[in-house]
Design goal:
This is Alpha-L-arabinofuranosidase. By secondary structure, the protein is mainly beta. It is built from five helices and 32 strands. 10% of the residues lie in helices and 45% in strands.
Length: 464
């Protein structure tokens, strides 16, 4: 009888926890599995606004640098509460192994400065089964300002989760990082100031427990940098600057810290809004605050991604995400020697162009089995179905397949190891097997390859 009462009590407690948004612990076998990959959350924007989707998108990566969007880069979670739009998602694994997702409450085209005391909250046991969208009031005593870019950290002294966010407190003329505390993500305390430099700061990320210290990164508008501060605790007001931070573009914001799974190094992502839809990346040492810029050839963010959140996951998590949402049905071709540039069509001409641009679909290709048959590949346009990259007089453009053997030969290529880098790819013309697809003054051609420059021009990364 007593044992049955214990089981019943435990079951009720678990159900209450699930209803409150903090679910029962994961199975021990999965919880014990080491992290082996990463998941990224983001929303999307494009130059013209055609790609603006204020909903959660997800991507996966084995190395945290090259990303594979899920669900064909379409949203996987659409907000239904508040303004029915989100920005600035933040994904966090709770202490019981479950997940919480927070986000700013702003629709596409909505006002950034409109007062809003609420943020969005979802919870999940497995990253694919999500609770209903709900709003959480984190800015309860502040009716006159926004609540931007929520992020989560664990405060062991309080035995509660801290939710940091950007806001302008009552009586202030500049933004600060505020914090509100919760144990269940259903209710939260009134906010207090977490970090204030005396001038505008936004977009916080707190990392706890690194070498006995805790770290706060944020965008400092006065310096234009992604700044770093450190504290022995996570008490509000306890963080002090310890590094100059990083700056490459004054439009870079939204610092996201990511620990390497294979080394002591860290990555620091920054989202750039001029031009929009581009990320900067640094690698370095969180403890010392020394960072080195990473070249764009070494990382590829999801197309049109904005304000990312990155978290380590297990291989089981990754497999579950891919099985549930699928990946992409298309690829991008990234230039090896102009790594911000991608193969695209423009007015039916083949060329490489620097992203971001619109229509962004001009850079999306379905790699089909070659029109000449197995052993070759042909590039079908996503936004012009039935049209392929083909050469005519060695100039490459986009044309509709006319079903002839001549078109098939002109539009088919053999994929080989990259001529300038064997980790990448080059594409040899089927019709002219001594010639390769390459760019020359940004225009696409099939040419003989005789120099180091030619080899670099003819080398591409096939990415998502």
């Amino acid at each position: 009888m007593f044992a049955r009462w214990i089981r019943r009590t435990a079951l009720i407690a678990a159900l209450v926890a699930v209803g409150a948004g903090v679910a029962a612990p994961t199975q021990k076998a999965e919880a014990a599995e080491a992290d082996a990959a990463y998941v990224m959350g983001y929303f999307t924007e494009s130059i013209s606004g055609a790609g603006n989707v204020n909903a959660l998108h997800l991507a996966v990566s084995d190395d945290g640098r090259k990303w594979e969007p899920l669900n064909d880069n379409n949203a996987v979670l659409t907000p239904t509460a508040g303004t029915k739009g989100i920005r600035d998602p933040f994904l966090y694994r709770l202490r019981d192994g479950r997940w919480v997702l927070l986000a700013t409450d702003i629709p596409v085209g909505g006002s950034f400065t409109k007062p809003n005391q609420y943020i969005h909250v979802w919870t999940s046991p497995d990253l694919v089964t999500w609770s209903p969208d709900r709003l959480l009031k984190v800015n309860g005593t502040n009716t006159g300002s926004y609540s931007w870019a929520p992020a989560v950290h664990w405060d062991a002294a309080r035995q509660a989760y801290g939710i940091t966010f950007s806001t302008v407190p009552p009586g202030f003329s500049h933004s600060v990082i505020a914090v509100s505390y919760t144990t269940d993500f259903v209710s939260a305390t009134d906010p207090t100031i977490f970090h204030d430099t005396g001038s505008g700061i936004i977009d916080s990320h707190v990392v706890t427990g690194g070498d006995g210290a805790n770290y706060l990164y944020y965008k400092d508008h006065a310096s234009g940098r992604l700044a770093g501060a450190r504290s022995a605790s996570v008490r509000p007001g306890s963080f002090a600057p310890y590094t100059d931070g990083v700056a490459d573009n004054p439009c870079t914001e939204a610092p996201t810290l990511v620990k390497s799974l294979t080394s002591p190094t860290w990555m620091l992502w920054g989202d750039t809004y001029c031009p929009n839809g581009r990320f900067d990346l640094w690698q370095g040492d969180l403890l010392s605050g020394r960072w080195n810029k990473v070249g764009r050839e070494a990382y590829t963010a999801p197309l049109n991604a904005k304000h990312n959140t990155v978290h380590p996951i297990t291989s089981a998590d990754r497999d579950r995400l891919v099985a549930r949402y699928g990946t992409t049905s298309w690829n991008l071709l990234k230039s090896a020697n102009y790594p911000g540039h991608y193969v695209r069509h423009a007015n039916l001409e083949g060329r490489i162009g620097e992203l971001p641009f619109d229509p962004y679909q001009d850079a999306q290709w379905r790699l089909r089995t070659g029109l000449t048959g197995v052993g070759a590949v042909s590039f079908e346009s996503v936004n012009y179905p039935g049209h392929y990259l083909r050469q005519q007089g060695f100039v490459v453009g986009l044309a509709r397949d006319d079903g002839t053997s001549g078109f098939a030969a002109d539009a088919s290529f053999q994929r080989v190891a990259g001529l300038a880098d064997a980790r990448r790819s080059s594409f040899r013309s089927v019709r002219y097997p001594t010639r390769y697809l390459r760019h020359s003054s940004f225009a696409l051609r099939v040419d003989e390859v005789t120099s180091a420059t030619d080899r670099a021009d003819a080398t591409f990364d096939v990415v998502h």
